[in-house]
Amino acid sequence: MAEESLTISKLKERFPDSMLEVAHFRGETTVYVRKGDIVKVCRFLRDDPELQYNFLSDLCGVDRLGLEPRFEVVYNLYSIPYAQRIRLKVKVSEGEEVDTVTGVWGTANWHEREVYDLFGIRFLGHPDLCRILMPEDWEGHPLRKDYPVQDMPKWWEVGKP
Predict the structure, then answer these.
(1) How many domains does the chain have?
(2) Per-residue pLDDT tens digits for 105-136
(3) Domain for residue 155, yes or no?
(4) Dihedral sign from CA coordinates of 93, 131, 44, 103
(5) Domain of 56: which CATH number?
């Protein structure tokens, strides 16, 4: 846990106004980051020689329907040299954009496209923000909690009398 404490203390020292909340649960640390600061925080975590969070293991969305802001973008980072994990979260209101982290980790390209496709969260500055799982003409974003699943045509009934 010493490295996690080092991570948090370095973040507090370097970005005191960017960190909105730090939560610890079952040995995992989550840092809520101000939306406009996510790129510089991620770049710092990657480039600091004592931290080296050099692997974006996952980036996903969460629909918090009924809460404001409605969405979260979750960044799960791993430091290969130090075998440490940290989770960053950014809260996003409907219609807001989050800056892309594709310039920090190339793999964010696919992750952000998936979040856009399934939740409708847009990433400002993304090099190719388009659907990745659903057809281009698909209407809506199927992982939103208010997505009308009941109204969807069922593939097994298509063409039946």
Answers:
(1) 1
(2) 999 999 999 999 999 999 999 999 999 999 99
(3) no
(4) negative
(5) 3.30.460.80
